[in-house]
Amino acid sequence: MMIRREAELLMEGGGGSAATVRARSFGLLDTPAIRRGIEKTQGIDLVVDLGARIGSATWWRGLATCTALCALTFSMAPSFRPLIGASPAPLAETQERENRRQAIAPQAFGADTGARAPATNLVERLTDTPERPQIQLTATLGAGDGFAHALERAGVGADQAQQAADLVSEQMSLGEIKPGTRVDLTLGRRPNKQVARPLDRLAFRAKLELALEVQRIDQALKLIPHPIAVDETPLRIQGRVGASLFAAARAAGAPAQAVQTYLRAMAQHVSVGAIRANDRFDLIVAHRRAATGETETGGLLYAGLDEGKKVLRLLKWDMDGKEQWFDAAGVGEQRGQMKMPVANAHVTSGFGQRFHPILGYSRMHQGIDYGAPMGSPIDAATDGVVSFSGWHGGHGNYVQIRHPGGMGTGYAHMSRILVHAGDHVRAGQIIGYVGSTGLSTGPHLHFEVFKNNVAVNPLSVKFTQAAQLAGNTLARFKATLAHLLATRVSG
Fold first, then answer.
1. M23ase beta-sheet core domain spans which residues (predicted)?
2. Which residues lie below 8 Å from residue 284, measured CB to CB, with a gap of 6+?
3. Per-residue pLDDT tens digits for 351-394
4. What kind of architecture, by CATH, is found in domain 235-335?
5. Would you say 201 and 216 are in contact if contact means Cβ atoms under 8 Å apart?
């Protein structure tokens, strides 16, 4: 009761603070010195509101107190400088070379592990150690590695490694074994520790359709082949071209190499850039699946493109020891710079100086004449843009086409023209028909070739030629094509 009354009196008098009240409550104000100190600080506000009475003595005292407290806080803040640890001394050249050899070389397939440190005088050799009756390990054949050498590296004796290699070579060529092939080995008990362990068993997958095993039977190594059934049904992949033929074919499951081969084959017959989004691609790829589950995907066998009104089918075929792509009619790849402008035509007049049959004097003949029946179709020799179309003096009905690379072609004496100046034409597109207009003695095509606006001999240009299958070869070709087209779409 006395403590409460004392606090009430103190608060009513307006003097002191909560700390003063608590001090008095616990009897701490009994000494004269403490009482005098409290009386001196009773009128001082230690927590100053810096937003009020700006510029007064109390405000400046509060600012000084805040500044001092902030400085004290920053002075006790931890440092952010990194602590630098002790750096190891650099390796000597010999140590660095040895470290690099032992760290990198063992990572390669079939690599030897390099030099080894010999034992010092501090190493005491054991008089005897027990050995396991058999040990199982794996040898890996490296690129350019020998089969016998890989076995020796794994711990097989040189004579037995060579004997095993000879046995395997009777079944297949050692060069056919792919790098990275893992060989499972079982080494038996040896008579003493001074010789290599004997080879008890060796097994590896030689091919998709063959596994080979070498076993020790009656103290002799014998080869035991294990044939594996393989399904060689090709893999057929179809789909819509969409925004990108390559991306669509890859998304459908076609290997990247097969898609690249498909595009190269198609480029021989159509402009790849002209393939539309709604066109459909058709790929048949060589594929083998073993009974044990492993698979192998080979090259592209068939390439098809459905453009709606037109379907292009290409089949890879070996002709005279060389593989090329033939369409369903047995026509192979076209090679050369330009296409013949008139089919089944013969040259009636060559390039150069000649006596003109109508004008009656000699002058330069800037092209060659192809004799052909009236109305025979005339094809554009290659892709280009028509630069002239119409009557051209002695040329009669005349068309001139500008091609990439500074090349140009001219077609004269037409009976009818089908293209106009500015038209884009493709190789093989019909641009008109054979006639006898202008200075002409009969139906023929006067064909000109220009290089940088200078006339050159058209016979110096390589015209496209395509291989053609016939007879029994064509029959076998069509039978193979029909068999492949019977393949079901995968998935």
1. 363-458
2. 234, 235, 236, 237, 300, 301, 302, 484, 487
3. 877 666 666 666 778 889 998 899 999 999 888 899 999 999 88
4. Roll (3.10)
5. yes
Q: Identify the band that residue 212 occupies on the pLDDT scale cut at 50, 70 and 90.
A: very high
Q: pTM (2 decimals)?
A: 0.49
Query: Residue 264 burial (CB < 10 Å; 0-12/13-18/19+)?
Result: middle
pLDDT exceeds cutoff 90 at 49: no
Alpha carbon distance 137, 203 (integer Å): 11
pLDDT digits (tens, 9 = 90+) for 388-416: 999 998 889 999 999 887 889 999 999 99
β strands within 198-351, DSSP E: 199-207, 210-217, 220-227, 230-231, 235-240, 280-290, 295-306, 311-319, 322-327, 331-335, 346-349
The CA distance from 238 to 378, in Å, is 37
Residue in the block written with tokens 């038209």: 423
3-class secondary-structure state, position 331: strand
CATH topology of domain 346-463: Glucose Permease (Domain IIA) (2.70.70)
Lookup: tokens for 156: 């097989």
Q: Which amino acid is at 394?
A: G
The yes-or-no verdict on residue 130 having pLDDT over 70 is yes
Q: Residue 298: in which H helix or E strand, if any?
A: strand 295-306
Write down the pLDDT at residue 127: 75
* 181 and 204 Cβ atoms separated by less than 8 Å: yes
The answer to whether the beta carbons of residues 457 and 448 sit under 8 Å apart is no
Q: Which fold has domain 135-227?
A: Nuclear Transport Factor 2; Chain: A, (3.10.450)
